[in-house]
Every structure is written in C-alpha cells, then in structure tokens.
Amino acid sequence: DAKTTQPPSMDCAEGRAANLPCNHSTISGNEYVYWYRQIHSQGPQYIIHGLKNNETNEMASLIITEDRKSSTLILPHATLRDTAVYYCIVPRQAGTALIFGKGTTLSVSS
Amino acid sequence: EPEVTQTPSHQVTQMGQEVILRCVPISNHLYFYWYRQILGQKVEFLVSFYNNEISEKSEIFDDQFSVERPDGSNFTLKIRSTKLEDSAMYFCASSDSDRIRAEAFFGQGTRLTVV
Fold first, then answer.
1. Which residues from A are below 8 Å from B109, CB to CB?
2. How many other C-beta atoms are found inside a 10 Å radius of the C-beta of residue A56?
3. Is B31 helix (H, G, I), strand (E, B) or coil?
4. Do B106 and A43 touch (CB under 8 A)?
5. Does B65 touch chain A (CB under 8 A)?
6. pLDDT given at position B2
7. B114 CA to chain A: closest CA distance, Å?
C-alpha cells in the first residue's frame, strides 16, 4: 500500500467538527483513499473513500487535495460515540487486501 | 442491514489444540478475508480468499493456518496447533467487488485465548 502518515492522536469537543489529516504523498494516479475506523476492539468499519473529488456521505466528508498527496476526513458534529481509531488506507491496487497502520486515536469529550 | 457474523464470540483453548473460527460473510459477497489483532496492537492482515482459493496471504499465515469455504455460506479459519502468541481477536471480512475491494465489511470478531 502507498505509505500513509497520520497523527497518533487527536482530541475534539463534542458537537464540534473533527478534522483528521492523512498524508499520502506517494499515491499514484489510480489509487483510492479509504477511511475506516475501529471503535474499542470492534471490527473495523468502513467510512468513506475517494479518488480525486471530495466525497460526502451520512457519516463523514472526505477532502482530497488537488495534488492528491493528502486528505482530510471531516466528522461535522462529533459525538462521544465517534471516539475511535481512524485509519487512512491507500490500497496499492484493486484486488489487494487492506493493510492497516496505527491510525489516529480520536477522543471526543463532552 | 446485512452483516458479517462470526462465531464463537470468545473461545478459550489449550496450547497445542486445534481451533476453527467460523464466519458467515454477507450473502452476495465473493471476496473474503481474515485479520487478527493482538491486544493493544494494530489490525494485521492474514489472508484473502476468492473463487475457492487463497488470493493473497501475509507472512503471519504460515502452515499452522488454513482457510476453507466448506459450503455456500461459511468461511472458516483453522489453526492446527495453537500457541500462546495466537491469542488475539480474529476478524472476518467480506466484500462484493474487486474493483473497489477495499470497501470491506467486518464482523465483530472472535476473541481467541490460548492458555
């Protein structure tokens, strides 16, 4: 997988937007950026993915820079239940397994 | 919403014993995976499975491990002779596409404790 770099931890106040950055400077033109999260030893949960354009779904928004070397996952109104480890993954090609790094531990507090 | 189901949720076994972890993937999915997570560590890829054969495996997936899809619904991971270091959460996942294969759905895991 293309190497990704994420901060080890972040804090966010409940109700505020959580902006989680990811650096993937070695990404190639046809590689997608995926975000997953893991809430306290539960199975990882898919959040969102994108290629070039910004994406939004019911869980989050994904902002990808024009040069595609970095992206930001945005949880617009974080809740206590969003406390989790967030993983930014760039699979090296279609048909290969997801490889998880250490991710960013997001702590949402009231 | 369809989900990946894993059984049992917790299994305790003695060192040297064989264990089989079971998973029922989402019914129309074609790609299947096993991952493990040792307590306090990151999620590690073990193996992927497609069209009744292993398509990719990691260095962790040695001869002690095997996978099988014995029927149209189950996907199993067998550990032949368990070691203490096999104690971990084991997650099964499935996806329906190769093109966007990374959109995988994970089960809630089986906690394996080897004593």
1. 41-43
2. 13
3. strand
4. yes
5. no
6. 83
7. 18
pLDDT for res A1: 57
Please compute the mean of the pLDDT values over residues A60-79 and round it to a whole number. 96
Task: Map residue B11 onto helix, strand or coil.
Answer: strand
State whether residue B85 is helix, strand or coil.
helix
* Arithmetic mean of pLDDT, A101-109: 96
Burial of B32 by CB count in 10 Å (0-12 exposed, 13-18 middle, 19+ buried)? buried
Within an 8 Å CB–CB cutoff, is residue B26 touching chain A? no
Structure tokens at B24: 């029922």
Average pLDDT over residues B58-67: 96
Report the chain B residue with the minimal C-alpha distance to residue A36. B103
| Contact assignment for A95 to B98 by CB distance below 8 Å | yes
